[in-house]
User: Fold this.
Amino acid sequence: MAAALLAGVLGLVGACARVPPDPSPRWTPAVGVETAVAPTPAVTSAGVGASLRMVSSEVISGFDLSVDEHLQSGRHSYVALPRIAGLEAWTQRMRDDRADQVDRFLHSSVTGESDRELIVSWDVVAASPEVVGFRLSTAEMGEGRYLGTAETTWYDLSTRTVRAAEDLLAPEARQAALDRLGAAAQAEPLVVGERLLGQLDRGLGGFRSIAFTPSGALWFEFDRARLFDVMDPLGVAIDPTGLLSAFGENARRAALQPRDPGPLRASPSASTSRAPTPRPSGTPKPPDARPAPPVKVNCAKRKCVALTFDDGPVSETSQLLDLLADKGVRATFFTIGSHVQSHPEIIRRMVADGHVVGNHSLKHPDLTRLAAPAIRKELATTTDLIRRAAGIRPTLMRPPFGSTNRTVGAVAHELGLAQVLWSVDPLDWKDRDADVVARRVLSQARPGSIILSHDIHATTRRAYRRIIDGLRAKGFVLVTVPQLFGRKLAPGAIYSHR
Ligand code: ZN
Assistant:
């Protein structure tokens, strides 16, 4: 590293080695459909105040995601990763790369507090027929610490190869990029000097998360290891002029003017003749789902139970919706904001079929570990995503893991969300066995029960054919959570059964 840069950075340590209270406003949340084409980028000022450009996963027609969750002696892992038809080798590699980390996390022995959490989540940062880019973020919490790291991974569709973040830069421009980065960082008051030093010492290899800002500047992310309640990306931006490789130029266009990569099953040789299929900018928003009228059920007099499904939607949630439609059952879905964004059509169908859609946070963190602004963002962003998808505003939320406290309750109250827990837990995420899940639900259901399940598991979806018939055979009426209580639930209050 250049001596001048080192001196500059060292000067920074004394100046702003202070953790800011809440840098979250710097991040532009990826809400709504961002298919609109950005104006021609004119990078006037790089550095301060820049934020990361995120793209809606709706742009990618073959997009889906998979979720995996484990709980083991006080360790909870929640891993959500993309899955793209035609790019399975790449998306599987993302999964494999994290499998070791999850395994280490679940099996590491530590003394002291054993209640710990690992969350892996994703954002699309670029999409086009030439390039697709993801930012994968990992947050490990517990034992009084928060370790947040991220990387961007890129796929070059013209050569069908996976590219690392630093491939965005031309090899001969890397030193210039480092110099520019050091200078930009000095102007960034949020950067903690020591941490920046550690990252810069590793050269560009220290920056595994590189992407673009909404104005097209190059964006370098910092480790967030010491910011306990910050889930958001934190970084600085630099002027990309003269720094990008040809691949990087394609990636920048894919970030600023995202387009559907198109059918990806084509062989590499066919890719050159493939016509790009850009969606027109300003794609009209689909009409709001028209909710089916609620059915009147008096649960004070009848044996009611409420079926609730968490952590979706995933594409297979449609199979469960088919089953529920087939059986004439209405249920309550606590949906994850980042998944709502991937499958707004499923949210619209839920509403149209008469189901109730609730809020299960944006990225499934344990909300009790977060400060109020971060909790607010998790819930408010998800409410907004549901509203944009289906035109309804949720009035119910379920805190991830059922973990709540006064702060979570206060934020839920402020956002008009009642907290819905459960009274029957078949542990369907743990025992992936349809028979076991069905047996547990049928033996534990009581009049007024709220039954917890996860529509993301095939075994759970299979179990419900038997569960629905079995509950009805016992005389139960299957209802939504609002029907179970028959009155408006109070925002912030906790409900776990009637
Ligand atoms: Zn959950």
Q: What stands out?
A: The two ends are 64 Å apart (CA to CA). Residues 310-311, 360, 364, 400 surround zinc ion (CB under 6 Å). Residues 88-107 form the longest helix (20 residues). The chain is about 30% helix and 20% strand.
